[in-house]
Task: inverse folding
């Protein structure tokens, strides 16, 4: 994170809210800063179809670009991959199809990563 750029928390929160706005399911934020030296947060969510995955990815990109003036440094998963990734350096957004999410099970892989309270509070506000 640069001194004048958005905080990793702001990026993760924007991604989380954009994904929820497009009905992504099981949206989770993992704080991986103590476990990985390359990023601070993973935002993980599921979508029910390739079309919805694309819609969620586009919404996340638009929200972060529009609100935080930031573009992903890397975007992977074009086509019908079932798993797309947006890399914002300090935050990596993973949007999975339901089957791929169960297969890769990142939450199990990174089970030692805390789930920030602010992410849970955001989920409650969005659901409420």
Result:
């Amino acid at each position: 994170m640069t001194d004048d750029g958005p905080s990793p928390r702001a990026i993760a929160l924007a991604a989380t809210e954009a994904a929820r706005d497009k009905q992504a399911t099981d949206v989770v934020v993992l704080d991986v800063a103590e476990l990985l030296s390359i990023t601070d947060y993973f935002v993980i969510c599921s979508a029910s179809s390739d079309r919805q995955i694309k819609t969620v990815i586009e919404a996340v990109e638009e929200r972060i670009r529009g609100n935080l003036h930031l573009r992903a440094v890397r975007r992977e998963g074009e086509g019908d991959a079932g798993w797309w990734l947006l890399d914002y350096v300090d935050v990596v957004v993973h949007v999975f199809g339901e089957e791929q999410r169960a297969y890769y099970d990142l939450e199990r892989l990174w089970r030692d990563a805390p789930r920030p309270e602010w992410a849970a509070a955001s989920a409650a506000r969005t659901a409420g």
